[in-house]
């Protein structure tokens, strides 16, 4: 009888570990001011997505490729079609500027970030391209809101009870 109790206790401990230990990476977008989660999606370490927007000064499109790197984000490169104020014009500060195969400029950034925070613009038309799907951020939250993108690790239980896009 004692062995049965030990086996049941050990089984419960193992099941609890797999239910509640944070194994899964999630890209989370939240309202920076109040912390309310706006959008979450499970992503694998090394998976990339693109944040696209219209630059506030030169009014041209910019596409930033961002990778999930464990507990943080890493801006890999920024792609754009013209120079202007606020846009890199040469390779500097560890970044490398080149012309891509499609004719767009590519600035290789490789910048690790714990969190990417920005105001959702009215004209910027911020969007995410995740796994071939485009998500217009102004459909999720009102422009002018300060938002934050970050990686969180969550448990199977949190994944199961939450509303995470696959």
Structure explained in plain terms:
With 166 residues, the protein is an alpha+beta fold. Helices cover 15% and strands 47% of the residues. The model has no long low-confidence stretch (mean pLDDT 83).
Characteristics:
alpha+beta; 11 strands; 2 helices; 7-stranded antiparallel beta sheet; 166 residues; 4-stranded antiparallel beta sheet
User: How many helices in DSSP terms?
Assistant: 2
Number of strands: 11
Based on Cα principal axes, name the global outline. elongated
Proportion of strand residues? over 45%
Rounded to the nearest angstrom, the distance between the terminal CA atoms is 44 Å
Could you write a compact summary of the structure shown?
By secondary structure, the chain is an alpha+beta fold. The protein contains 2 helices and 11 strands.
Topology summary:
Blueprint: H1 2-20, E1 22-31, E2 37-43, E3 48-54, E4 61-69, E5 72-80, E6 96-99, E7 105-113, E8 115-119, E9 127-130, E10 133-136, E11 146-155, H2 156-161
Antiparallel strand pairs: 1-2, 1-11, 3-4, 3-9, 4-5, 5-7, 6-7, 8-11, 9-10
């Amino acid at each position: 009888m004692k062995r049965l109790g030990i086996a049941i206790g050990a089984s419960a401990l193992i099941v609890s570990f797999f239910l509640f230990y944070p194994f899964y990476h999630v890209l989370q977008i939240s309202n920076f001011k109040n912390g309310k989660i706006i959008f979450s999606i499970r992503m694998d370490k090394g998976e990339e997505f693109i944040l696209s927007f219209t630059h506030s000064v030169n009014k041209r499109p910019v596409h930033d490729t961002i990778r999930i790197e464990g507990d943080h984000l890493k801006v890999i490169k920024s792609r754009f079609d013209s120079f202007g104020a606020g846009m890199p014009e040469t390779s500097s500060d560890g970044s490398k500027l080149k012309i891509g195969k499609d004719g767009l400029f590519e600035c290789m950034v490789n910048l690790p970030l714990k969190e990417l925070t920005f105001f959702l613009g009215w004209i910027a038309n911020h969007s995410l391209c995740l796994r071939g799907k485009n998500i217009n951020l102004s459909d999720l939250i009102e422009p002018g809101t300060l938002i934050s993108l970050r990686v969180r690790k969550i448990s199977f239980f949190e994944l199961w009870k939450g509303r995470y896009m696959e």
